[in-house]
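Q: Structure for this?
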Amino acid sequence: MSDLKAGLQQIPKDENALADELIANSPLREIDPASIDELLDRVNDALIAGVPSRLRENNDELLDKLVDGFRREAAQWAVAEREKKPRGTRTARTKEPVDLNQAIDL
Amino acid sequence: MTNTAFSQELPKLQLAWDSVSYNALDKCPRYYQLSIVLGYGLSGNTNDHLLFGRLWHSACETYDHQRVQGVDHESAVRHVVYCLLINTWDFVHNRPWVSAEPTKTRETLIRTTILYLDNFENDPLATVIKADGQPAVEVSFNFDLGEVINGFRSPTGESYLWCGHFDKVAEWNGEYWIPDKKSTKFELNEEYFSQFSPDNQMSGYHLAGQVVLHKPIAGIMIDAAQILVNGTRFRRRPVPREPEHLAEWLTDLRMKLRENEEYVRQDYWPMRAKSCGFGRMRCSFCPVCAAEPVARQEILDNFYVHRVWDPLETR
């Protein structure tokens, strides 16, 4: 397949080996409440730095925040979707009020 | 490159079939010849839909393994997210997976996986635990089609096999079900679910579910995810198949494999021009078929790559 697949093939399959890879002295250690984009940036910075070392052990907080962030965004999206007006119920875009009696007469 | 799915005696005769290769033959014999018999595929393009599906499936498989080991839901979800972060990292170019499909990205993958696992944390469709204590997930199967079509054999006397992989085997109210995850950007309405009837993959699952498990399955259950840029919705729906449907599907399968034997005998797989498609649905081999026959091999050599599709490979 693609370059991506070539990249993925270099990942050790053993999950425990993966777990030992992420960061000791990485930007991941300094985490403030952040957006998903910011949290992912932290992850990416660590990976770019070639850090993989103990992400889970040292950075449960990061993963927790990431998981919670995705859940929170999904919940907000679901609420916004529910509050959308169903199709066909939007009000007409007429600026002047319509006189229905006149309309019927016409 | 050898492909163990093909006959030792007639090297162009496929014996081990799955829904991918059978769909190819069903779509167009020439497409089947180029993609499966000769093993050509477009080079350079990652199919982001396939990659998304593969990663989502393996994430859910990892979750099931974690839960069987006694890991609680939250910790298992966190572990899965960790694995996804690593597995969507391109270590060659030192960057995250860059998807050309806005709804199938690293972010939508992680979000969809978390929400799916949360949604089905206490799933009544409980994953079957095998005798060895492992969850019955990504279950590879194959069986002799002669078992279900009386006396059905290839012209060489070798067996025809039907192969595939179940996402998982689940149990509900004492009956076995086969759940199958699908993702789409389209609305999960009746029209969406209608695409699975008829459908070769689902019919093959139903058939295999009657043959390869300890007891016949009650049905297939589609877990569909509508994946949008900002949100994901899920909907679960059974895919029905009556015994008459399966009998008809087997009749069609037998006739189409017999037709294929004739193509092999003549070493000629005809084009089905009405299957070429248009726009984004255009067949990837149209530039080959549209060229003069004398120029086709050069096009294949320059713009396509070789890969083996072997239904006998287990996961």
